[in-house]
# Entry
Amino acid sequence: MLIGNKVQHNAAALRTALLGKKMVRFEAPQMDSIVPQVGHTIEEVRNLDKSIEIIWDNGIVLNTRMKMTSSWDVYRKGDTWRKNAKHADILIDVQDWVAVCFDTPEIDVYYDFDPRRHPILGKLGPDLALLVADIEEAVDRMMEYEERDETVADVLLDQRVVRGVSNVFRCEILWACELHPYANIGTLKRAECRELLTLAHEMLQNADVSSDNLAIYGRQGKSCVRCSDLVKVNHHGEANRVLYWCAGCQTAHEPLVRPNFTPLYLERDASVGDSHPAAKQFMNEIISLRDAG
# Structure
């Protein structure tokens, strides 16, 4: 099997076993860099030319370079491994599945880079994962956010505003507040920011992330549990993180168009139109000219 085909095959197996699952165990005896943290959810698996990236909901990326003798194998709990355990470089356990990487020549772990969230560019915001967190300071930072047309979904992941909000909780918090993820931060009132951050703090104090108790995250193509509309998914923001939302009930501060997207035209209801007499006369002239042609 060619290396490119093997990488695609391995990545597909990893997606089936890991996506949307909370990690309960991680082992990499030879790794001395950042370690993916137990309790975080695996959000994405990317297959590149000769490497595989696994991305967690807190932005950590595990990159493994593959050669012809390398492989990512997935096993159900209790299955006998097909390869010798002494060649195992990485083990990822998500309860019902175990993924094992064998004979990779290179392991790299890093955070998805977003230059606006680099610590040297500004003081970090309050950590909502802490029992005692300064909600009002976080509200101040949100209200004073410099880019007023930035989306609330992106601002929630900006550590200069607030810390501790993983991507899973970002989706869940916005859904709970019925807030559109593409809402411009400049459109939110202070009371709305306070409600959003207070709820985020409460959810993080009672963090029990599993697919059984998530309302929106990972439910693409399924019906919303609140309004029965279809759950949507997209990549969004500077870090291109995956975002789940319901267009049926997350309508608060919904923008006219999606960020960074300008349509060639806007669909309007022809039966309504502009009621001003001059507009009506103009349209009548247009129709007359079209009929004459």
Observations:
- Residues 134 and 164 are 13 Å apart (CA to CA).
